[in-house]
Amino acid sequence: MHRHTLSVLVENKPGVLTRIAGMFARRNYNIHSLAVGPTDDPRVSRLTLVVGTEAVQLEQIVKQLNKLVHVLKIVELAEDESVQRELQLVKVAADGATRSQIIELADVFRAKIVDVDHDSITIEAAGNPGKLEAMVELLEPYGIREMVRSGTIALARGAKSITDGSKVRMQRVV
Amino acid sequence: MSGGKHEGTASAERVTGAQAVIKSLEALGVDVVFGYPGGAIMPAYDPLIEADLTHVLVRHEQGAVHMAEGYAQATGEVGVCIVTSGPAATNLVTGLADAHMDSIPVLAITGQVARSAIGSDAFQEADVTGITMPITKHNELVQSPERIASAIKEAYHVARSGRPGPVLVDIPKDVLNATFTWSWPERVDLPGYRPTVRGHGKMVREALQLIAAAERPVIYAGGGLVRAGAGDELYEFATRLGLPVVTTLMARGVFPDTHELAVGMPGMHGHYAAVKAFQEADLLVTLGARFDDRVTGDLDAFAPHAKVIHVDVDPAEIGKNRVVDVPIVGDVKVVLGQLLKVLDDRDGDAAFTPDCAGWRTHLTALKDDHPLRFEQPATGVLKPQTAVRAIYDTWGDDAVYVAGVGQHQMWAAQHIPYTRGRQWINSGGLGTMGFAVPAAIGAKVGVGPDTPVVAVDGDGCFQMTFQELATAVQHDIPVVFCVINNGYLGMVRQWQHLFYDDRLSQVALPQDCPDLMKIADAYGIPGFRVQSVDDLDTVLAKAREITDQPVLVEFRVDPDEMVFPMVPSGASNDDILESAEEWRARLAETGQ
User: Fold this and answer.
1) pLDDT at position B4, please?
2) Is B124 a known active-site residue?
3) pTM of the model
4) Paired sense of beta strands A112-117 and A120-127, if any
């Protein structure tokens, strides 16, 4: 099993996310993470899907996604040729004795302290999944109250963009 | 996209959403809709009174969608059905799933509760776009009256183009009632939908080179050829290169069974020679087929020596089940045209014609040595195979044959020699019992008065949808309904006999209940019963005379008869059995 990151441009129409998630469920494919948001074009949204699968199945996943009428374009972003980020918020137990240690730890990971209370600190961190997991591991001894993590978002490195080569045309005449 | 007969009639006319639905169907050139009115769709039934289209009133919404399927399969046009919200729309589910599996172009229009009530669990509300998402090619909940014409035009386009399939348009009642200014969209705006029609030129040439080098090539002809209307191109291609042709259940007739290159049907209940042809082949020229498990049996043991050329309009089918040597994405009719063009333009046929006369001779010998086996006593008990052959002898080559699902379906697929695409209609992928009666009605509406339509149904299937006899009677749709009555769910019984030590669980359906002659009588149509082989000819002669109204013919057949050949479920095609005796001998041999 390999981790594959798919970047998918879709028409911004009702039910698109359901269609995509439903396709995965119906065909017994597993989604590790899914993040959706708008693009610079209000008619287009971009999904970043991370799936753990073999190459043969990945090809089938891409083909089945392409069959969905509202899907405009799919590219796979190789891990070493793309910038991949997740956002994480961690609420850690903290008191006078441990607060400064935790802040120091957060600094090491270039994380930000976004909330402080008498007995807790909330840390915001962004990065690839490995970095976030490493930070959590080090925070664990202090007592993690709760934690939330976004899906992965990703862009190709360098100047190239998903719409290069085959420009996605929204006004297509059939 | 090509326009319909009323296209271009845009004006500043004020219409209701309901009128827009009907005008859209007219603009697309739709002639007939199968439907059933109800609360939410009622506004659309009002302008229907003056509409330039025929409405066939069904007795159950499942009937409407199967009729649309039968119509579409028989004509190649989009079949249209229209029903109300909630339970009516959910009654479409089986037919939509069926159309999805068999790539049948169907446009379903459903009523929905008013926009303000959506999500409130209102009376007769169901999330129909949600429910049908996995079993339609596409669907849409229409959110404004201005959107109706575009939604229907797009749905129609998506249903029929690329790999055909069912598309559903769900329209809230208040949208149907709203008034707005009518306009017919000039174009379809679907930026994410671009089916590939033409095959890649390099792949086309590679395919021909692979064929030329083959020693044991077989064309694996699938239902996509029927959907694409590619029978003529297939015929020319196969005969020019001398390639043997195996036609799947979905493709029966697309290459004539009567031709010397025809090897028969592959798969679980396929002809022996066709199954063996795949197992021995060194090349499968796969055209509009999808390596279904009912064809391949144990996939790892399927066609073990064969390279594969795969032509399909749906890229997702290529490589899905079987590794492919030469993939060609495109409409199979267009790709066959490209292949023929290369034959015309380049070195001529000779350079690409494989040297396989010996292979053809071998397959002919297999056909001769392994015909379909059954024994019909001269008098008394009627074998179902005899009944099916007699049905064919009576209604002949002109007729369209429509089957339900089960033993009768397999006998009808095996024992009738089909000579053209669209002559054989059945539920292949989903295996929907109850398909035959409504699908035959839809097919008859499509083919018109000059072509007989004969439903070959089973007693189990028939009882699932025979209420549609009333539809046939009310609308003067003269279908011949043949019921092969063996008093059992025959195919399940066959499996219980073979694989469950003959422990028959819940498969008996009393042969006399219902009394099908009284059913015919109740619907006011002629009914005939064949009790034994002795009265077969006289009864069928009488039934044949009736062409102006529906007719029911019941065949009381031997309940013990089983369908052979058979590849046991999950087994290799190499283990094909030709008779029950062979099965018992194999069990004895393996000590089970």
Assistant:
1) 46
2) yes
3) 0.95
4) antiparallel
B314:A67 CB<8 A: yes
Spell out a b/e string for B300-322, using b for 16 or more CB atoms within 10 Å of the CB, else e.
eebbeebbbbbbbbbbbbbbbbb
**Residue B123 known to be catalytic:** yes
The CA distance from B133 to A22, in Å, is: 8
Residues of B in contact with A69 (CB under 8 A): 137-138, 158, 190, 192-193
Q: Best of B2, B133, B156 to disrupt the A interface by mutation (most A CBs within 10 Å)?
A: B133
The answer to whether B325 touches B282, Cβ cutoff 8 Å, is no
Low-confidence ranges of chain B (pLDDT < 70): 1-11, 347, 591-592
Inter-residue long-range contacts of A40-45, CB under 8 Å, 24+ positions, other chains counted? A41/A170, A42/A12, A43/A11, A43/A12, A43/A170, A44/A9, A44/A10, A44/A11, A44/A12, A44/A72, A44/A168, A44/A170, A45/A9, A45/A10, A45/A11, A45/A12, A45/A16
Per DSSP, the three-state class of B217 is strand
Q: Which residues pair with B171 in a beta bridge?
A: B111
Distance from C-alpha of B275 to C-alpha of B301, rounded to nearest angstrom:
12
pLDDT, tens digit (0-9, with 9 covering 90-100), for A39-51: 999 999 999 999 9
Q: Could you give the C-alpha distances from A125 to A128, A136, A139, A151, B516, in angstroms and in order?
A: 10, 10, 12, 13, 74
| Cβ contacts of B189 on chain A, cutoff 8 Å | 171-174
Distances (CA, A) of B111 to A62, A113, B40, B97: 34, 53, 5, 19
Check if B545 is active-site. Answer: no
Q: How far away is chain B from the Cα of A7, in angstroms, using its nearest Cα?
A: 15
Tell me the chain A residues in contact with residue B134 when contact means C-beta distances shorter than 8 Å. 22-23, 26
Query: 3-state class of B368 per DSSP?
Result: helix
Residues 143-162 of B with CB under 8 A from A: 143, 157-158
Contact B187 A173 (CB under 8 A): yes
Alpha carbon distance B266, B281 (integer Å): 13
Residue from B229, B266, B224 nearest B244 by CA = B266
Measured in whole angstroms, how far is the alpha carbon of residue B78 from the centre of its chain? 13
Q: pLDDT value at position B349?
A: 74
Partners of B188 on chain A (C-beta within 8 Å) are 174
Write the CA distances from B219 to B223, B246, B375, integer angstroms.
Answer: 13, 6, 31
| Residue predicted with more confidence, A115 or B570 | A115
Binary contact (B192, A70; C-beta < 8 A): yes
Of A84, A21, A4, A35, the closest CA to residue B134 belongs to A21
User: Is B561 known to be catalytic?
Assistant: no
Phi, psi of B571 (to 5 degrees): -80, 170
How does pLDDT run across B120-164, given as a tens digit for each residue?
999 999 999 999 999 999 999 999 999 999 999 999 999 999 999
First to last CA, chain A: 40
Strand order across the beta sheet in which B424-425 lies? B424-425, B400-403, B453-458, B480-485, B551-556, B527-530
Partners of residue B553 on adjacent β-strands: B482, B528
DSSP state of B577: B
Give catalytic status of residue B491 as yes or no. Answer: yes
- Residues of B in Cβ contact (< 8 Å) with A15: 129-130, 133, 141
Going by C-alpha positions, the residue among B378, B395, B375, B499 that lies closest to residue B444 is: B395
Answer whether A66 sits within 8 Å of B315, measured CB to CB: yes
B367 touches A: beta carbon within 8 Å: no
Q: Do B192 and A14 touch (CB under 8 A)?
A: no
Of B157, B188, B192, which has the smallest distance from its Cβ to A72's Cβ? B192
Q: For residue B279, what are the CA distances in angstroms to B231, B262, B583?
A: 25, 16, 20
| Chain A residues within 8 A of B1 when measuring between CB atoms | 174
ipTM higher than threshold 0.85 = yes
CB contact under 8 A, A69 and B320: no
User: Are B468 and B438 in contact, with CB atoms under 8 Å apart?
Assistant: yes
